[in-house]
DNA sequence: GAATAATGACAATCTAATTGTCATATTAGG
DNA sequence: CCTAATATGACAATTAGATTGTCATTATTC
C-alpha cells in the first residue's frame, strides 16, 4: 500500500511539464549567443565528456528519429564541434565524439547552467534535492526501460 | 551551507528535460484518439474543473503568447469543449470556461493519465513522492515568480 | 553470394509556437 | 465627458524542432 495520493503523483508529472517549458526558455536565453540550438545541445550533452556514439545510437538514446539527429550532427560536424572516428563495429557508420572545441563549448554551457542551477536550488534542504534526484532517476529508468 | 552538490542539482534539471520528452510522447499516445493536441490539453488543464480565465490571462499563466492561446481557444470553442461567459471586469474579453462536455473529456484524459501515473509511481516510497512534489513545486514557484 | 537490414541524404510535411500587423473596442486620465 | 493610450481578437508569415517517406548505397546475416 503506497500512501501517496494519485493526485500527488499526477502533480509531479504536471510540474515536470511546466518546469520543462520554463527551463527551456531560460536555458535558451543562456546559450543562444553561442549559436547552439537545443537540439545541438542535447547531442553535445550525450557526447560529453568522452562518449562516442553513431548517429542511430544517439537517436535511440535521445528518442528521436535518426534523420533528425543526422541533420543536427551534420551541422555540428560542419562547425567542428564534433568529429567522426572509425567504428570497429560498423564500417560505414562512424562514431561521433566531441572535438576539444566542442568539449570546451559544452563546458561553457555547463558552467552557465550551473550558475543558474545554483541560484535556483539555493536554500533547499540537501535531503530534498537528493530525494528528488533519486525519484526522478527512478521514473526515468522506468520510462526508458519500457519504451512502450 | 547546502550540502547537495551542484552536479546533483544539475541532474535534477537534466532529468526533468528527459522526463518531459518521454512523458510527452507517452501522453500524446494516450490522448491522440480524442483529437486533443497538447496545446488543447494545456488549456483544458488550466480551466479544469471550474476555472474561468480570459485568453490573455491564460496566455500569462501558460507563458505563451496570447495569439497562440487565442487560436487554441477558438478551436476548443468550435468543438464545444469550452464556452464564453460574460466578464464582469471586461466587456469585450470574455471569460473562457469548460463546458460539461469539455469537463467530461478532460476527466477521460485525467483518468487515462492516472492509470499510467499509478503504474509509473507504483512501489515508490510515499515520502519520496511527497518530497519530490514539494521540491518541484518550489522550483516552479521560483521560476514563475521570477519571470526573468 | 544473395537477401535483408542499416545508413546517410534529401524532401515534404507537421505542430507548437513566435513575431508582426490591423481594426476595433475598452479603459483610464485629464 | 472626451480623448489618448491600451487591450483584444483576428489574421498572416515565419521559425524551430521534429516527423514521415523515399532512395541509393553499403553492410551484415543466412
CATH fold call of one domain in chain A = Arc Repressor Mutant, subunit A
The helix/strand class of chain A is mainly alpha
- Alpha carbon gyration radius of chain A: 18 Å
Main β-sheet of chain A: number of strands, strand sense, barrel status?
Answer: 2 strands, antiparallel
- CATH H-level superfamily title of one domain in chain A: Winged helix-like DNA-binding domain superfamily/Winged helix DNA-binding domain
Any idea of the CATH class of one domain in chain A?
A: Mainly Alpha
Q: What is the subunit organization of this protein?
A: homodimer
Largest Cβ-defined interface: A-B, 56 and 56 residues
Helix content of chain A: 55-70%
Low-confidence segments of chain A, given as residue ranges, are: none
Mean pLDDT of chain A: 85
Would you identify the CATH architecture of one domain in chain A? Orthogonal Bundle
- The H-and-E topology of chain A, N to C, reads as HHHHEEHH
Overall shape of chain A: it is: globular
Secondary structure tally: strands of chain A: 2
**Tally of helical runs of chain A:** 6
